[in-house]
């Protein structure tokens, strides 16, 4: 067995061992195919922490605990205080890739490695890695940009030309991409609410005497009132919605 060890965290039992194709594992070693191993190659970099504390936290890939990465952005991985497992916060170094064993041990190995062994004494599992697929180039689309979700801090692509809110494909939560969209929508629904209020007030004033004898006028009053309340609710919704940050064009 040829050795290629590189600790991911100091004083942690997290390392990488590579096994050449000619080597054969001992009888106590269990082999695992790469299809059973979670993908641990992040396609994002944690943004620089700003005024909001949420930008300095990521989710643990093992127990989903929030990990504070403030002051650790120069590291490639951080350790979770809950499960003591490593989680990558940066892409692997050039020529390297992350692999997480089924025992949750995070390994780093060469991109060309085909078999690696878990270094933990209670595991020693051999993982057979399939060759890394070639990622096709993302076609240039007008308005397409890279966005960091305000909820889970993962990165996804979003077309800014879409007149809609963005739903993160990772956490499935909705947010506004940039503050301008939410602000414009809030102002729009506020103006609609004012117009409906004025129209409804005028109709109520001029038809009140008729509404006493004709129940249909009360129905019109109630419909306008409901539309006004809906417009006000939409205005408050867009004013309070969280805003995801734009990292830049693709």
Structure write-up:
The chain has 250 residues and is an alpha+beta fold. The chain has two domains: 112 residues, no CATH class; 111 residues. Helix content is 24%, strand content 22%. It is built from two helices and 15 strands. Strands 12-11-15-14-13 form a five-stranded mixed sheet. The N terminus is likely disordered.
Tell me briefly what this model is.
This protein has 250 residues and is α+β, with helices and mostly antiparallel strands. The protein has helices at 179-211, 215-240; strands at residues 17-18, 31-33, 57-59, 66-68, 77-79, 86-88, 96-100, 106-110, 115-117, 126-128, 144-148, 155-159, 166-167, 174-177, 243-249.
Primary descriptors:
250 residues; alpha+beta; 4-stranded mixed β-sheet; endosome; PtdIns-P2-Ptase
Topology:
Blueprint (H helix, E strand, L loop, with lengths): L16 E2 L12 E3 L23 E3 L6 E3 L8 E3 L6 E3 L7 E5 L5 E5 L4 E3 L8 E3 L15 E5 L6 E5 L6 E2 L6 E4 L1 H33 L3 H26 L2 E7 L1
Parallel strand pairs: 2-10, 14-15
Antiparallel strand pairs: 1-9, 3-4, 5-6, 7-8, 9-10, 11-12, 11-15, 13-14
Helix pairs in contact: 1-2
Enzyme class: hydrolase
Membrane topology: Multi-pass membrane protein
GO molecular function: phosphatidylinositol-4,5-bisphosphate 4-phosphatase activity
Q: What fraction, in percent, of the residue positions are helical? A: 10-25%
How large, in whole angstroms, is the Cα Rg? 27 Å
Distance N terminus to C terminus? 42 Å
General shape = elongated
Structural class: alpha+beta
Poorly predicted ranges: 1-7, 9-29, 42-54
Transmembrane segments: 187-208, 214-233
EC number: 3.1.3.78
GO molecular function, one term: phosphatidylinositol-4,5-bisphosphate 4-phosphatase activity
Function: Catalyzes the hydrolysis of phosphatidylinositol-4,5-bisphosphate (PtdIns-4,5-P2) to phosphatidylinositol-4-phosphate (PtdIns-4-P).
């Amino acid at each position: 067995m040829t050795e290629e060890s590189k600790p991911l965290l100091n004083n942690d039992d997290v390392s990488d061992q590579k096994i050449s194709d000619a080597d054969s594992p001992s009888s106590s070693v269990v082999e695992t195919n790469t299809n059973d191993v979670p993908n641990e190659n992040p396609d994002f970099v944690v943004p620089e922490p700003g005024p909001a504390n949420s930008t300095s936290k990521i989710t643990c890939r093992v127990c989903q605990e929030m990990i504070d990465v403030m002051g650790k952005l120069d590291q490639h991985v951080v350790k979770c205080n809950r499960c003591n497992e490593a989680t990558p916060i940066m892409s692997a170094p050039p020529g390297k890739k992350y692999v997480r064993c089924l025992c949750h041990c995070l390994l780093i190995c060469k991109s060309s490695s085909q078999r690696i062994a878990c270094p933990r004494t209670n595991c020693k599992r051999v993982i057979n890695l399939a060759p890394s697929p070639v990622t096709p180039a993302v076609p240039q689309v007008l308005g397409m940009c890279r966005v960091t979700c305000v909820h889970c801090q993962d990165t996804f692509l979003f077309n800014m030309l879409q007149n809609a809110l963005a739903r993160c494909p990772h956490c499935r939560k909705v947010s506004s991409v940039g503050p301008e969209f939410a602000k414009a929508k809030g102002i729009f629904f506020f103006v609609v609410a004012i117009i409906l209020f004025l129209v409804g007030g005028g109709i109520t004033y001029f038809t009140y005497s008729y509404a006493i004898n004709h129940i249909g006028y009360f129905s019109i009053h109630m419909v306008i009132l409901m539309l006004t309340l809906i417009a006000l609710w939409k205005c408050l919704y867009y004013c309070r919605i969280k805003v995801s940050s734009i990292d830049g064009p693709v």
